[in-house]
Amino acid sequence: MGYLRTYFSTSRLQIGKDLIHPKHRGVKQGDPMSPWLFNLALDQILEGQEEYAITIGAIVLNQMAYADDLILFASSQEEMQKRIERLTIGLGRLGLELNARKCCVLSIRGDKKRKFSFVDTDVSISVDGTRLPVVTAVSEFRYLGVQFNWKGVARTPLDLEKLLVRLNRAALKPQQKLIVLKKFLLPRLQHQLTFGRLHKGELVKGDKAVRRVVRRWLRLPADCPNSAIHTPARFGGLGVNSLETLYSTLKESRLTQLSYGDEEDAAIASNPAVRGLMSYKFRGSVMSSREGLVEDLHRRLDTRGLQGYEKVPAVNSWLDHAPTNLAGHDFQEAIRVRLGCMGTPSRLSRGGRSVDTICKCGSNARMSLPHIAQACSIVSGLRIKRHNNVVLYVAQILKEKKYDVIMEPRLQTERGLRKPDLVILAKKEIIVLDVQIRPDSVVCTLDACNREKIAKYNQPYVLDAIRDRFGHGLPIKVIALTYNWRGAAAQQSYQDCITNKLLRWRHFGPISRMILRDTARMLWAYWHAPADGATRPTASAEVLMDCAE
Prior knowledge:
With 549 residues, the chain is an alpha+beta fold. Helix content is 43%, strand content 13%.
């Protein structure tokens, strides 16, 4: 106790050149010790008042306290006045006092004969001679940030529109607005969603307002599915919480925790009315569960290629940690490529519109985003550049780690020329790393493509050529870095690169963003290319079939 007395009486706070002296009253704001000291003091005052408790079923209540926000219960006006007088005396001993301007009285009486309850406004409770205001049947009061009336929690508006208008007018890049929405604006509503009372219609209206501004920021078309916005980023969406989903999850989580609390909490959880709320979900709504959002996203034509995105969550790091020098336009394009909603003739022909969907490369294939990303000969140069950009990025990281890196060595083998992207000379081994960007096929998974690439170079004649070129006696390991054009990575690639300490978790996100950016540039180049692309070499029939929608 002597330490605490010295700590509070002699400590000073300096702001700039000004030295602030405490007034020796109350506890320090923001000090981690302050809540403990305040609760210890308040517990002494509230002890010994069990005789004023009231019983509701198996629940016994005499008071509810959260720091200095206190609710007292009593069965009569006289008992309440005694409790307040006793509380005032206890607070006075500690140098504290009740603020009558922030107190109120709610008196609820029951008529057993007519079986109804009513608010009794003819009560008079005072604090040090000051009469406290009385809650009527139509008035409301606020406790712990939640609006109450005499029946319980009152319905209060979210006021989400005002917050969205302020954010929309802010001079921020699209990615910055998206981060503020996800990390600050929507979490600001969690307390009200957890403890407040909201109608489903208001939550639906709020979700529509959120989707409206997100579509405007990212230039998403109107037919981009709602699930693409609300699905978590690890499954391929944008990770913007749906108010319906958040409301159900927070309510269910809070009520379920009562079952694992102390005896008083267990008594509350055993109440049939409370148990009925533990599965708090809106019926018939896709937005009311994460599973429904993911299922809806992965069954859509434009976004079904996002299946498997959750296997490597690291590729999503650029969504929430975009570099400061990233242009807003590049971020918008990357998002639209990822969601497959870029403007192509194949997509624009939906709804019965008359649009020529045949690609001008002369392959007689439909001009769709998968075709441009993987097969169209008009942008084959940019496709090679997309691959080389990833190779250069990985090579730069490895050189910073002091590895000896050889790029595209020409290896003459008995079955022809082989050119792996990177050969890494470590102290105790040789690592062959080859990069590939594959289609988003749901038939041939990324892990299967990764195994095919490893099998291509993990052949005796290739390994012998590497030993002859770079040294005998060292073990050789073959690794493939496999992505698809949507920016998803193969799980085995991620594990191999992390295990062998070639790449770190933070490197997979920039690679994904780089692929999406270069794919968007390929589409831009296609629209600005001449219409005589038929004279250029076309892709093979197998590639065209693999890239068809």
